[in-house]
Amino acid sequence: MRNPPHILIVDDNPANRDIFETRLAVHGYEIYTAGDGEEGLALARERKPDLILLDVMMPKMDGIEVCQHLKGDGDLSFIPIILVTAKTDPKDVVAGLEAGADEYLAKPVDQTALVARVKSMLRIKALYDQTQEQAAELSQWNENLQQRVDDQLGELERLNSLKRFFSPHLAELIVTSGKTEFMESHRREITVVFCDLRGFTAFSETAEPEEIMRVLREYHNAVGPLIFEFEATLEHFAGDGLMAFFNDPVPCPDPAQRAIRMAVAMQEKMSQLVATWEARGFDLGLGVGIALGYATLGQVGFEGRFHYGAIGSVLNLASRLCDQAEAGQIVVTPRVQAEAGDLAQVEDLGELTLKGFLKPVKALNVVRLNEPE
Description:
Shape: rod-shaped
Helix content: 40-55%
Number of helices: 11
Structural class: alpha/beta
Largest sheet: 8 strands, mixed
Order of helices and strands: EHEHEHEHEHHEHHEEHEEHEHEE
Radius of gyration: 42 Å
Mean pLDDT: 87
Number of strands: 13
Strand content: 25-35%
Low-confidence stretches: none
């Protein structure tokens, strides 16, 4: 409700309008007046007052009809109406109330009763307006809440999708930043780690399917968490083959060192598992290849099944180095070793002839990490 409240007086008698206006104006109300029902209805629609004093007996349109029009208008139906009537027949009073009037005064109007009824109706109007404001705020709050819920669900979906390829930390960082440019095709230097199980093909040809699945679960549970621990991006994880890379989508200052540290951690983890497998009669071990070079990265796939992938010869090189690695070996290129500095002790494997590469590739085996000084 406005402050001060606005009151519309509708009466065809100028003297009555002046009396009502004089009595109410001293209380600080904003007053409008109309001389007949049609004018009063038009003014009510234009000004939307907080209260209407409405005479019953008027030309053109009487107060009962005006009241019916007002209560039938959704924008005006909750404006309190006080009927002012000279009629004393209870049927006339009932007709006015049934038309939607909220209160009535009998002529001649007692001025004290007039002020009291006006204040009473304005209190009701104030409560109604307060309720409407609260309802509007609640509706807006619900809309905002729904939007926040939708946004959070969208973030959770994105986060769950990204966690398929990135560590939880990187996935949350990407979602929080709101940046999605990395999903578009781009070129960057990365360090690629490829690993698989030596002897797995022969093992899978003779072992029972249930035993193969058990071995794969144990293998994945051993090396999988290390990918996230070292914040690598998982590019490929199927069967016994696994490929991950560093320096994309979030650049890191030491991708070669991280790759080697992760590979060493994998071999250490696998050494315990290999001993268990040997006790069960399985001749299996982990081979790792690491290469460094440029690749094109980005989102590939189709609606409902997208994948974050990389394309480039560096991936093939890491894969071919892995093929050459014996169980327990980590085969790297000289460039990887150079970028890693004195992180690890290596042994020269000479030049390897790799499928898909025209020239032999010089390779090194990571023996162990150097002790920190």
